[in-house]
Amino acid sequence: MTTLTIKETNPIPLEAEMISPDHFLGKSAAEIAQLKASLGNQIGQLGDFFTINGDGGEEIHLEGDLSRVKHIGEAMTQGRIVIHSDVGMHLGARMRGGEIRVHGNAGDWVGAEMHGGFIHIHGNAGHGLGGAYRGSPKGMNRGLIVVDGSTRNETGAFMRRGLIVVLGDVGDFAGSFMLAG
Fold first, then answer.
1. DSSP strand pairing (69-70 vs 163-166)
2. Percentage helix, strand, coil, to 5, in the chain?
3. Of the chain's two ends, which shows fewer C-beta atoms within 10 Å, N or C?
4. Is there a contact between 14 and 76 (Cβ–Cβ < 8 Å)?
5. Mind listing the pLDDT tens digit of every residue in the chain (181 residues)?
6. CA 169, CA 128: separation in Å to the nearest integer?
7. CB–CB of 42/3 below 8 Å?
8. Hey, how many other C-beta atoms are within 10 angstroms of the C-beta on 175?
9. What global pTM score does this model have?
């Protein structure tokens, strides 16, 4: 298991698509710390932004305020990510397998265009949950997303397959242009 604790919250979004079991597997904490991350238009290393403990196993735990951290678990195919706070946009976007659990709220585009896997938000989620990105004809195609709270607009827009369960309220245009699921 690998644990990442954010060092400080920055108003500039941190793009961290490398936070995924696919990128961590088999790496030491020192190797994980050297993976690239973008803070605005500056490229840095993951170790510049997070304290990293553990080995490169299939399970990743994230702690601290991650509300400005984007793309966690993007395109992941395996393993498990557990987030113990709020998290930013594009969580699990284009995900193909594995599991993501958020003990907090999530930003916009959670599971956008995902093709498999499981995402469970123990809070609220933003706009475009399981939907298609602007200009794309296909949203979520397989997988399962569960939100214990509410979601915003365009939940499941352009969805092709899969299942989205929202226990609270949903915003406008839920399931718009949905073909299946």
1. unpaired
2. 5, 30, 60
3. N
4. no
5. 999 999 998 899 999 999 999 999 999 999 999 999 999 999 999 999 999 999 888 999 999 999 999 999 999 999 999 999 999 999 999 999 999 999 999 999 999 999 999 999 999 999 999 999 998 989 999 999 999 999 999 999 999 999 999 999 999 998 888 888 7
6. 14
7. no
8. 17
9. 0.95
